[in-house]
Every structure is written in C-alpha cells, then in structure tokens.
Design brief:
153 residues, mainly alpha, Zincin-like, three-stranded mixed sheet, 6 helices, 40% helix, Metallopeptidase family protein
C-alpha cells in the first residue's frame, strides 16, 4: 500500500507561481555561472593545473606503464611549512614518498609554487613535466633522462 502524507499532498496541489523560490540576498534572482561551462574562463587555475598533470601522467603512461601504474599522484596548494627532520632543504615544487609497508609510492606536486614561478601556460606545463619525471626517477633510482629524454629542456 502506498501512502502520501497530508503535507506532501498540500505541496503537490500548489500552483507553480505559489511555490517559494530561492532568491539571493538582494532579491535579484538565483545565481548562475557567469561563463558557460564549455568556455575556457569557466575553468579555475587549480582545475587547469590538474588537467596539465593528468596530461603528463597519460603521456608517461604510454611510454612507461609499469612505472606509472603503481604510483599515486596528488596535488596540494602549498608545501608544509615545517620540513621533515631528515630534510636539509625543503622541496618547494614537489615531493616523493617511497613505497613501504603496503603503501604505494606517492608523488605530491605543490600547485602554488609551480604556478608562481611559471611565466605562461607552456612554462607551467614544462615545470610539471620536469617535476613528475624527476620524482619518478628519484623513486625508481634512475636518471631522469632515461624516463623522458626531453627532461630539463
């Protein structure tokens, strides 16, 4: 048996113009995005950074799937303010954590330092590529040129 509570019947019988409408605090209407979702301006800087990182991971996965598959990638806004006791120089662009005790290897990129040093979008893409390749080389004990011959150019 299907039952409807009396308040649901009451709200179902209201006319559309009688239903309450959410308005913003100035009463001018609901908020909508200023730009369309397909326009470039709709993307935030952090969203574009994430897209660039994913593009680099896909590119490297095509060449080295056995190296990329076990690694977890993450993005944080800024590096931690206090470096670990064993670090003499803090890593500003990225940091790698080797695998251990059932935890896969991880690479963390710090978005704000990389964006602040980049002059344009292309420079940021190269910075992301260099950070990812250098951290992969650090995790696997290889030279960065072995993983990506264009590293550092």
């Amino acid at each position: 048996m299907f039952r409807i509570s009396p308040d649901k019947v009451e709200t179902m019988q209201q006319m559309p113009w009688e239903t309450p409408i959410y308005r913003n605090r100035h009463g001018r209407g609901t908020r909508t995005p200023m730009f369309g979702t397909r326009l470039p301006r709709y993307r935030t800087r952090s969203g574009m950074f994430d897209d660039m990182l994913v593009a680099q991971i896909r590119r490297l996965n095509g060449a080295w799937p056995e190296l990329i598959a076990p690694v977890q990638f993450a993005v944080e806004d800024v590096p931690p303010s206090d470096p670990a006791p064993w670090e003499d120089v803090p890593h500003l662009g990225s940091q790698s954590f080797p695998a251990g005790h059932g935890i896969p290897p991880r690479i963390v990129l710090y978005r704000m330092p990389l964006q602040s040093h980049a002059r344009n979008r292309m420079d940021l893409q190269f910075a992301i590529r260099d950070e990812v390749v250098s951290r992969l080389a650090e995790i696997y004990g290889r030279r960065p040129e072995e993983i990506d011959p264009d590293w550092g150019m």
